[in-house]
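Notes continue from the previous slide.

Worked example: a multi-chain complex. Inputs as given:
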Amino acid sequence: MCSNVNRRDFMRAMGALGVMGTFPLSGFSAQANTGEVPLSVESLPPLEGELTLYLGRGEGGLYEKVINAIRKRNPKLSLQVRRGPTVALANTIAAEAKAGVLQADLFWAVDSGSLGLVSDAGLATALPDDLLAGLREGFRYRDWAPVSGRIRTLPFNTDRVSPGKIPDDIMALPDTDLTVGWAPAYGSFQSFVTAMRLLEGESATRQWLRGMKARSRQYAGEFGVVMGVSRGEVDIGLANHYYTLRLKSGQPEAPVSLAFTRDDAGTLLNASGAMALTERPIAVNFIRYLLTREVQEFLAQEAYEIPMVNGVALPKGLPDDDQVQPPSLELTRLADIRPTLDLMRDAGVL
Amino acid sequence: MKRWPVSYVLSAPVAVLALLPLLVLLDLGASAESFWDPHWLDVLGQSLALTGLTVVGALLLGVPLAVLTAYVRLPLGALWLPLLAAPLAMPSYIGAFTFYAAFGPGGEIEALTGIPTPELRGLTGAAVVMSLYTFPFVLLTTRASLRGLDASILDAARTLGLSLPKALWRAVLPRVRRGIAAGALLVALYTLSDFGTPAIMGVDTFTRVIFVEYNAFGLSQAVMLSLHLLVIVGLILFLEGRMGTEQEHPGRTLILRPGRAPAIGMMVLVFLVFGMAVGMPLGLFGIWIARDGVGSFDPMTAVNSALAAALAALAAVVLALPVAYAALAGRAGRIIDRITYFGFGVPGIVMGTALVYLGLKLPFLYQTLLLLVLAYTLRFLPLAVGAVRSTAERLDTQLAQAARLLGASRGEAFRRITFPLTVRGVVAGGALVFLEAMRELPATLLLRPTGFETLSTELWRVYEAGYFGRAGLPGLLLVLISGIALVLMVSGERGLKADLIENRG
């Protein structure tokens, strides 16, 4: 399996995920049962020794819980974690490698674009076949393992906006009179812009960014965006799906609901993932922990992320709707973030 | 040939070290592709707008309060000045963080009281917060000038028929222009260097954009922006250096005794300012602790903060000693002293950017505690130099000479006479550096070793993740530790004054 998934494979993967065609995901669960049973942490070797992990954005402590659980289970593991914005860490890894001072053994990023950037720099250690085998078909890359999936969404304030007013074409958003919350410094947002650039072209994307700038309000992260939407600071937001689901699980009465665009960058399906940067087996073994049933179930149930190994149920609260149609775009192409950053800088939104 | 004083030999390398960040930036800047980006005009505009608004806000708060604390006799006299100076002990990003969470629809104030408040964000929000935490600069410089004035001119003005406010406006304030201007320049300097407040409030100032560019690894952009910012900061430092204080013949200081109602009004005003700047953040941290608990807090962050700050304080004091003595020894020494002041004008984000690249060039330094401590030390060295020098200046040089005459070596005279007499300055300087290093945010974000989280980076993480409730304990600890360092410093200075008075008597 090469790291470039061709389009047909990808479409099939989307089908397997249940996000194409019938989104109610009922077909997905049935299919999941035919897959392999995911590994349990019980079957994994203990981790021993030093390991430095670069963690792109801690997702408000939920990844932290996973890391702490792994630490607790492996008392002989000496794990150092450096946290930061995903793209910054990807660039740091590249700069470190260039200067010959690579510190990171492992990179866990919330966004596949950043992983692709490091992968393109030739810094990743190839993953073994048996690790790939447990992953969803279509998400098996040689350089990195997807850990969880997420869909771009438009959370909207149900008191301020009726769903009918939200366009199902992301490119039409600047022409509405809606105020929009966004977090341009966030890796997932930048991947979304990369997707738009690849799907719609540079000039259309530049125009979109400029058009949006006037009606947008900047937040530090996308949980902030969703809170801003629920507080009525803006009409709608641009954010990964799970922020809204997490907010709703804490505050079921919050006036936020999810809208989706159709077959464009606005409904991009992306993945967080982990990459080994050292030949030492401990890095790959750490990734195995992330792909266990326990971690995957935790991420699905507590973090509302889409599990990436076969046989784990999807999170509750994704809309029961067959309207969700992600664009067909290979995740590895999202690695091309430098032109995106230039574009965003140029449009004055970074 | 005349021998160089030992202090010169020891302090010259310190001066070279102090210029290190500038050298690194110039080296990187020389290879930059573009020196100017039209988008930066916007950045310049935003930076100047925030600085200008903050200066206006700080003057509006600082000058009246300076008049109040300089001239007005209120009950509990000694209480009011410390209350009004207290905001200086708080990092302004704590204010920005709590104001951001407290105001606006759905903010904490509305959640607690049901009273809707306007949103405090962007340029307005940043200017309000910055004014609230920088006005003590204006208050202190203006008050010092006011205290030096002779009251008889005001009395004359009043005799000639001016009301008290008019007399203050026309016969007093013009004479303390320089004091006010000195405070305003300090405010401007602080505002231009501050990273946390504009970052949290979302204002595209130099510091925030440098951080964004750094994170996108727009290396040359970050460096060029840093150099541009340094030019502006240099300009302000130059103006500040030319500011003298008014020299008037000393006379009787004016004393105003307000009636009951105005006195109560003034005390309420002081409490209001203190409550907004210090009470509100502390209260909010308390509420968050009560609501969200402290479960997710890692006590190591407090240990790390204190450790790095203590190492920086130690290093700064050790480096400051030769510089301070060199400054007293002669002209070349004064130049060395001036050079070490450079670090104070380097904003934390610029210092961080420069040292990250230094680390990439010198791998043994990269992501080490040493590099972080070096950043703190270079940045806050002038505080230690100033404190040590001001106590050393008051020393009777004949004492050391007498010791030499009695047969003590240079080293022994220093060890047994000079050093013990400057130890108060050393403690005060160390405490100041500790205080500043504890709350430093941007350089810490860039330079901390992996796994080394401090109270300030923890607060930043909480802000980025949007889970404000978890800021309670780290925020409270940060303020508490800063407060202790401040008390140490103030009591050190008091002790010194007491000594001087005793010696005189």
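Summary box: Chain B has 24 helices and no strands. Chain B has a mean pLDDT of 86.
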